[in-house]
Design a protein that fits this description.
mainly alpha; D-Maltodextrin-Binding Protein, domain 2; 3 domains; two-stranded antiparallel sheet; 18 helices; 71% helix; rod-shaped
C-alpha cells in the first residue's frame, strides 16, 4: 500500500503540473491528436489506390498502318486503343504524335505513354521472329519511381494480353482450316497423284540418263573432231596465205597480158605487111613477065636481055612462092599469137580472180584465236556434259528415292485425321497459376496499417515525453522507492499515449472501417506498444538527457528501415536483415499483422510478450541507472514556450 501511495502522490503532482492550466491542457489534447492526424494523413493518401487508377493520366499514340493478313485488313493498333478506352482502367489520353507524348511524360503531365509504331501490325501478326512486334512504353523513373514500376508491370500485363489475343486468333485459324481444307481424302488423292508423277519422273530420268551417256560420247567425239578441224583450218589458212604469196604480182601479170596483146597485134601488122609484100611480088612478077614477053619483039638486044631477065623472073617466082609460104606460116603464127593472147588474158584474169578468191577465203576463215576458243569451248562442252551426266545420275538416284518416299508416305497415311481438341482460347492460354492467399488483405491501405501504427505511436510517445521533465522529480520523492519514482514520473506520458492509442484505434475502426480478425489482441498489442515505447524513451532520457530524445528519433529511422515494412527484409542489406529480429518495431509489426490478418499463423502472443518484456527491461534499467534531480514542484512544468 505504501508503494501505491507514493506512486499516487507523484502522479498527482505530475498531472497537476501539466493540467493545472488551460493552455497546458489544450497542448496535451493537441499532442494526443497528433499521431491520429499523422495516421489519417498518411493512410488517406494510399488507402485504396486501385480505386483511383483512372486519375493516372496515360498517353495513347496510335500510328499503326494495319496489315493485310490472310486477305483481311487488320489494324491491331486501332483495336488495342479501342479496347483500352472501353476498359478505362487508367486515365487514357489520346495524342497525335510520339514526340508530344514523350514531352508530356518528361514534364510530369503524364504518368507514362503507350506508343504504337506504324509497323506494329505488320510485324506482330506474321510472327516471323520472337518479340518482333514492339510497343513503346515511355516512362520516367526520375519523376516518380512508383509510377515507373506501375508502367513496367503494365507493360508485362499488356504483352501477355496481346499475345493471348493473337494466339487465340491463330489457334482459331488452325482449327477452322484443319476442318475446312485439310480433308484426308483430298490429301490422299493428291499424294497418289504425286506418287504417279514421281514414277513418271523417275522413268523420264532413267531415259534421260541413258541418252545422256550417248550425248556424252558424241560430245567427246565432237570435241576431238573440233580439235582436228581447228588444226586443219589453221593449216588450210596457212596454205592459202602461202599460195597468195606465191602468186605473181599483179603488175607482172598485167605486163604479161599487155605483151601478149602487143605480140598478137604485131603479128597482125606483120601479116598485113606480108600480104602487101606478096601483092607487090605478084605485081613485080607479072611486070617482069610482061616485060619479058614484050622484049621478044625487040630486034636488037632482045636475046641478051631475056637471058638477063630470066634469073630475075625465076627469082621473083621463087620470091612469090616463098612469100606465099611465109604468109601461110605467119598465118599459123598469128593464130598462135592470138591464141596466146587469149590464153594469157584468161590467165591474167584467172590469176586476179584466184588472188581475190584466196583473199576472200582467208578472210572467211576464222582467226587462230577463234579456232583456239572453239577448241576450248568444245573441251568445256565435253566437261560440262560429263558433269551433267554425273548430275543426272544423282538426279536419277534422287528420283528413285523420291518415288520410294512418296510410296512410303502414301502407305503410312492414316485413314482418318484426329483434330486437336479444345478451343482457341484454351489452346492459347491453357495454363494459369492459381494464387491461393492466406491472411487476406483487402487493399494497400490496410496492408500499410501495421507498418504505420508503430511509427505513429513512437512519434506520439516522443512528443508526449516533451510534456514532462524526464530527470527532475519533486523533493518529497527523495525517499520514495525507485519503482514509485519511475511510475509516478511516467503517468503523464502514459496517459497521453493511452489517449493517442484510443484515438488511433477509433480512427481506424470508425473512419477507415478497418476490419480486424483478433480485436482484443490488436487493442492489447497497441496499448502495450505505446507503454513500451514510453519506457524506452524514458530510458534514453534518463541515460543521456535531452540527447536521448534525438537518439530516439534516430532509433525510429533505424527501426523503420529494418522492420521490413516497405520491402521484405530479405531484400535489404545484410546489416538490416541481421538487426531486424532484435528491434521492437519488428515485433510490433509482426504482432499487428497476426492480430489483423491472422498472419504468421495468427501468432500475436509472442510479439505481445516480447513487447512486455522490453517494457520491463527498460523500466528496470531506468530505475537502476542514472540519478534523479530533486526540485520544487514549480520547476516540474515542461520547458515549452507556449
Amino acid at each position: 500500500m505504501r508503494q501505491l501511495r507514493q506512486i499516487y502522490r507523484l502522479a498527482r503532482l505530475e498531472l497537476l503540473s501539466v493540467f493545472s492550466q488551460t493552455q497546458w491542457l489544450v497542448t496535451t489534447c493537441v499532442v494526443a491528436v497528433i499521431p491520429a492526424m499523422y495516421l489519417l494523413i498518411y493512410l488517406s493518401s494510399m488507402w485504396d489506390p486501385a480505386s483511383h487508377t483512372r486519375s493516372l493520366r496515360v498517353g495513347l499514340v496510335n500510328q499503326d498502318k494495319g496489315y493485310a493478313y490472310r486477305d483481311q485488313m487488320v489494324t491491331m493498333g486501332g483495336e488495342l486503343v479501342s479496347r483500352l478506352m472501353r476498359k478505362a482502367d487508367l486515365g487514357y489520353f489520346p495524342l497525335a504524335t510520339p514526340d508530344k507524348a514523350r514531352e508530356l511524360v518528361r514534364s510530369g503531365e503524364l504518368a507514362f505513354a503507350i506508343i504504337i509504331p506504324p509497323d506494329f501490325s505488320a510485324l506482330a501478326l506474321p510472327a516471323r521472329m520472337a518479340d518482333e512486334g514492339r510497343l513503346e512504353i515511355y516512362a520516367s523513373a526520375g519523376n516518380n519511381y512508383q509510377t515507373y514500376l506501375i508502367a513496367k508491370k503494365y507493360a508485362e500485363e499488356l504483352d501477355a494480353e496481346l499475345n493471348q489475343a493473337l494466339n487465340e486468333q491463330r489457334w482459331k485459324f488452325v482449327l477452322t482450316s484443319s476442318i475446312a481444307s485439310n480433308d484426308l481424302f483430298e490429301l490422299k488423292s493428291a499424294l497418289t497423284k504425286i506418287q504417279t508423277g514421281t514414277q513418271e519422273l523417275n522413268t523420264g530420268l532413267q531415259s534421260v540418263h541413258r541418252n545422256s551417256g550417248r550425248i556424252t560420247q558424241g560430245v567427246s567425239q565432237l570435241s576431238d573432231e573440233v580439235n582436228k578441224l581447228t588444226t586443219g583450218s589453221q593449216q588450210v589458212a596457212q596454205s592459202l596465205r602461202s599460195m597468195e604469196v606465191a602468186l605473181p604480182p599483179p603488175e607482172d601479170v598485167r605486163r604479161l597480158r599487155i605483151g601478149a596483146e602487143e605480140l598478137a597485134a604485131g603479128h597482125l601488122e606483120f601479116d598485113k605487111a606480108l600480104g602487101n609484100l606478096h601483092a607487090g611480088s605478084v605485081r613485080l612478077y607479072q611486070g617482069v613477065d610482061q616485060f619479058k614477053q614484050s622484049q621478044s619483039s625487040v630486034p636488037f638486044f632482045s636475046t641478051g636481055l631475056l637471058e638477063a631477065i630470066d634469073p630475075l623472073h625465076t627469082g621473083l617466082h621463087d620470091l612469090r612462092e616463098g612469100i606465099v609460104k611465109a604468109q601461110s606460116g605467119h598465118t599459123q603464127l598469128t593464130t598462135g599469137s592470138e591464141s596466146i593472147r587469149d590464153s594469157v588474158k584468161t590467165l591474167a584474169f584467172g590469176v586476179r580472180d584466184l588472188r581475190a578468191g584466196l583473199r576472200q577465203m582467208i578472210v572467211k576463215l576464222p582467226e587462230n584465236t577463234q579456232l583456239t576458243q572453239l577448241g576450248q569451248s568444245a573441251t568445256d562442252l565435253a566437261l560440262a556434259q560429263s558433269q551433267l551426266e554425273h548430275g543426272l545420275t544423282r538426279l536419277s538416284d534422287g528420283g528413285v528415292f523420291l518415288q520410294s518416299s512418296t510410296q512410303l508416305l502414301l502407305n503410312r497415311m492414316p485413314t482418318q485425321v484426329n483434330l486437336i481438341e479444345g478451343s482457341p482460347e484454351g489452346l492459347a492460354h491453357s495454363v494459369v497459376s492459381e494464387l491461393k492467399v492466406v491472411s487476406q488483405v483487402n487493399h494497400l491501405g490496410a496492408a500499410m496499417v501495421p507498418n504505420v501504427i508503430p511509427v505513429a505511436i513512437w512519434l506520439g510517445a516522443g512528443i508526449a515525453v516533451f510534456l514532462i521533465r524526464g530527470r527532475h522529480i519533486a523533493l518529497l520523492a527523495r525517499h520514495y522507492s525507485s519503482g514509485a519514482k519511475l511510475l509516478g514520473k511516467a503517468v503523464v506520458p502514459l496517459c497521453v499515449v493511452g489517449l493517442q492509442s484510443l484515438l488511433l484505434m477509433a480512427l481506424l475502426m470508425l473512419w477507415f472501417g478497418l476490419q480486424v480478425d483478433h480485436l482484443l489482441a490488436w487493442i492489447s498489442l497497441i496499448l502495450c506498444t505505446a507503454i513500451s515505447f514510453v519506457f524506452v524513451l524514458l530510458m534514453f532520457i534518463r541515460l543521456t538527457g535531452d540527447l536521448g530524445k534525438a537518439l530516439a528519433m534516430l532509433l525510429l529511422a533505424l527501426q523503420i528501415s529494418a522492420s521490413g515494412g516497405v520491402v521484405p527484409i530479405e531484400l535489404s542489406s545484410e546489416f538490416f536483415s541481421t538487426l531486424s529480429p532484435w528491434l521492437p518495431m519488428t515485433w510490433v509489426v509482426q504482432g499487428l499483422k497476426a492480430a489483423m490478418f491472422s498472419a504468421y499463423a495468427g501468432d500475436w502472443l509472442r510479439p505481445l510478450l516480447q513487447t512486455l518484456a522490453l517494457t520491463v527491461i527498460c523500466a528496470l534499467i531506468t530505475m537502476t541507472v542514472g540519478r534523479w534531480q530533486y526540485c520544487r514542484v514549480s520547476r516540474l512544468r515542461p520547458m515549452l514556450d507556449l
